[in-house]
Amino acid sequence: MTASKKTAGLAGVIAGQTALCKVGGEGAGLSYRGYDIYDLCDYAGFEEVAFLLMVGHLPNRSELDGYITKLKSLRGLPDAVKQVLEIVPANAHPMDVLRSGVSILGNLEPEEDFANQQSVADRLLACLPSMLLYWHRFHADGKRIDVETDDDSVSGHFLHMLHGKPPAELHRKSLDTTLILYAEHEFNASTFTARIIAGTLSDFHSAVCGAIGALRGPLHGGANEAAMELIQKFSSPEEAIKGVIGMLERKEKIMGFGHRVYTTSDPRNSVNKKMAGVLADEAGDTHLYANSEAIEKVMWDEKKIFANADFFAATVYHFMGIPTYLFTPIFVCSRITGWSAHIMEQRADNKLIRPAADYIGPGLQTYVRIEDRR
Ligand code: ACO
User: Fold this and answer.
1) Which atom of ligand 1 is the closest one to the Cα of 8?
2) Residue 45 has what pLDDT?
3) Helix (H, G, I), strand (E, B) or coil at 127
4) What is the pLDDT of residue 25?
5) How far, rounded to the nearest angstrom, does the alpha carbon of residue 280 sit from its chain's CA centroid?
6) Residue-level pLDDT at 28
7) Residue of the nearest CA to atom 3 in ligand 1?
8) Ligand 1 atom 30: the closest Cα is on which residue?
9) Which of the chain's ends, N or C, has fewer CB atoms near its CB within 10 Å?
10) Catalytic one among 205, 259, 318, 342?
């Protein structure tokens, strides 16, 4: 079989099987282990979804309570991790901070045995927000914050550490919903990276570090930050429309739009858009939400390209006072669940992932010794 332009970037190639997530199809067009994401957003919390993805079924009340208590007990950071976070420069990219945090944790608390994989996953899910916000608050405010808050949920814990007080329920619930929407998405680039690393029988932390690196790029998770920068550039919807048309004429990409798998809409967008509208009203927004809607409309009118999960997530985060450079790391705090479930699924029926390439270089050459070369 030879590669062609058709399979560039492995587009449309079935690269394996998964029971975790279906992208496209009935209902919302996105389901986790058979549950429609719209039902999960309406009725479940992020911890319930994390349990569903990793353990394999919806938890009953006592399983969920036990899981929440367990995650709360795993939020603390070893002193050595705090020391590393303090010496990482204030102007470092927070995705690099998380990648380094996971890496150092892998040295301090290595995965001794694959039998402990669920414990490693739970530890990372519980302490990634602690790492991120310990680093952020240390460098932004000069404070060594307590990373063990009383909040039950990951979303409450995150916003409490960020703002130094428990969040309003509207904000907590909105963040929680975005965590559910970001939790899992089949063989996306970062998840596939994690599976490739897991497929070599490497350790859990290495697979997660690789996944964070893949998610960092603007063609993947980094799009939410780029989307906010774009939305904020314009002072009115009219200016936004003009600006975006100009960018399209210059063949620039508009971040937060388009998708490799979906063709007409991203099912996560309608949920994010609704939340963005509510939060914009609450914040007394004068133009950002209107700019976002105008950009969404002009992208569809001009190119038939739709907003993906990242576009309105950016506005949601903005209106709850989250600095733009923390947007993509929030994605990590959520997607750790999907990555972990995929690492476990890969290991359960492992086969080294090693495709082949079409060689397009020169034919066999005669080697010329260095002293004889011109
Ligand atoms: N802005 C402008 N044009 C676009 C966009 C966009 N956001 N997305 C796709 N297009 C155009 C391309 O220029 C290309 O046009 P052409 O055929 O005239 O050259 C065509 O649509 C196909 O686009 P590709 O980039 O080849 O499609 P691919 O499937 O490889 O890429 C991707 C999908 C990477 C998501 C792309 O749509 C993109 O770059 N979007 C912006 C980045 C982004 O928002 N990423 C987040 C993805 S979702 C997530 O990670 C949660």
Assistant:
1) 30
2) 98
3) helix
4) 78
5) 23
6) 74
7) 253
8) 260
9) C
10) 259
Angle at 210 between CA 202 and CA 192, to 5 degrees: 85
In this model, does residue 4 exceed pLDDT 80?
no
What's the pLDDT score for residue 181?
A: 98
- Of 266, 310, 318, 342, the active-site residue reads 310
Please indicate whether residue 342 is annotated as part of the active site.
Answer: no
pLDDT over 70 at 3, yes or no? no
Atom from ligand 1 closest to the CA of residue 11: 29
Ligand 1 mean position, distance from CA 318 (Å): 24
Dihedral sign from CA coordinates of 246, 252, 254, 260: positive
Give the Cα separation of 279 and 289 in Å (integer): 9
182 CA: nearest ligand 1 atom: 51
pTM, rounded to two decimals: 0.95
Q: What is the percent of the chain with per-residue pLDDT over 70, rounded to a whole number? A: 98
pLDDT average, residue stretch 347-368: 96
Spacing, Cα 30 to ligand 1 middle (Å): 20
Residue in the block written with tokens 């309003």: 168
Nearest CA to ligand 1 atom 26: 260
Confidence of residue 2 (pLDDT cuts 50, 70, 90): low
- What backbone torsions phi and psi does residue 257 show, to the nearest 5 degrees? -130, 145
Q: How far apart are the first and last CA of the chain?
A: 40
259 annotated active-site: yes
- Region of residue 302 (phi > 0: left; psi between -120 and 50: alpha; otherwise: beta): alpha
The DSSP symbol for 184 reads: -
Active site residue 310: yes
Exposed, middle or buried: residue 44 (CB in 10 Å: 0-12, 13-18, 19+)? buried
User: The tokens of 156 are what?
Assistant: 């409450």
Atom of ligand 1 nearest to the CA of 258: 37
Q: Residue 100 in contact with residue 88, Cβ under 8 Å?
A: yes
Q: Tell whether the torsion through CA atoms of 156, 157, 159 and 161 is positive or negative.
A: positive
Around ligand 1, the residues with Cβ closer than 6 Å are 9, 11, 219-221, 223, 253-260, 303, 305, 308-310
- As given in the structure block, the two tokens for residue 117 are 């994989």
Residue to mutate (ligand 1; options 224, 305, 310; most atoms within 8 A of CB): 305
